[in-house]
Design a protein that fits this description.
The protein is α/β, with parallel strands linked by helices. The protein has seven helices and twelve strands. The structure holds zinc ion (ZN) (2 copies). One zinc ion binds next to loops.
């Protein structure tokens, strides 16, 4: 699982609602002082990438049995919204207006304020219940693309590096689930459903090396050797200019 907070002035949005949402809300409280323990609007909105366990099930804590949120905007694709609105327990959040779904059209920017725009982009992934998007956050200074889950780059219509160029992305925060096939003995690379870090590095190393692109990896499987902060693979990755996203890191827009 993985998530981000999007902070725009005094407004705070959560990007994906993980099962750890309580800890995230605690950490965000400093940024958005609310009404203490009875605050029913701890967030100005939630963006969801897709309907996999680590990305949306934390929504439950916004419901009647916990925060009982008061009309928190919920931004997701039509398919994701329809899934939530028609399946319990999520439908209860919609019925009680704990969340108010706002459907995003992939490729169409949504202005959060006069400086920050968010655009959902469909990405290939296991879409059992809904579809999957990455988010492009465009601020006055930088464009950041967040894609915590995607199939390998060979499944994209355009090469990922060309897509990043076309979208003028300055910072990419990318699915780093697995480092290489060494973590997955006996498995077929085509069946992994994620890009391998070594493949992502191969595609993006020139852009990263020249300083034209910053890349952070996130969404690690427990088997991933780059989680060892003192390991040689982590050191190699960082010496090539790539970074591992840590809890609490801030990236300016
Ligand atoms: Zn995931
Ligand atoms: Zn997923």
């Amino acid at each position: 699982m993985a998530s981000l907070a999007l902070v725009a002035g005094d407004r705070v949005f959560l990007v994906d609602a993980t099962p750890d949402i309580r800890r995230q809300l605690d950490r965000l409280r400093d940024l958005k002082p609310g009404e203490g323990r009875v605050d029913r609007s701890p967030l100005d909105g939630v963006f969801l990438t897709h309907a996999h366990l680590g990305h949306y099930t934390g929504l439950g804590f916004l419901g009647f049995e916990a925060v009982h949120a008061n009309e928190t905007p919920l931004y997701a694709t039509a398919r994701m919204v329809d899934y939530l609105a028609t399946n319990g327990p999520w439908s209860q959040l919609v019925d009680l207006r704990n969340v108010v779904p706002e459907k995003l059209t992939p490729g169409e920017p949504l202005a959060i304020d006069e400086r920050v725009r968010v655009t959902a982009h469909l990405v290939p992934h296991r879409d059992e219940f809904a579809d999957t998007v990455g988010f492009l956050f465009a601020g006055p200074d930088r464009r950041v693309f967040y894609v915590p889950d995607t199939d390998g780059w060979q499944h994209w219509d355009a090469p990922f590096e060309a897509w990043l160029d076309e979208q003028r992305v300055d910072v990419a925060i990318v699915d780093g689930s697995f480092y290489s096939m060494d973590e997955l003995p006996g498995r077929d690379v085509a069946a992994i459903g994620h890009p391998l870090i070594i493949d992502t590095v191969e595609r993006l190393k020139e852009r990263v090396g020249s300083g034209g692109l910053q890349v952070f990896f996130t969404h690690f499987n427990h088997s991933n050797p780059v989680l060892d902060a003192d390991g040689t693979l982590r050191a190699e990755l960082e010496s090539a200019g790539f970074r591992v996203l840590d809890d609490g890191m801030e990236i300016g827009l």
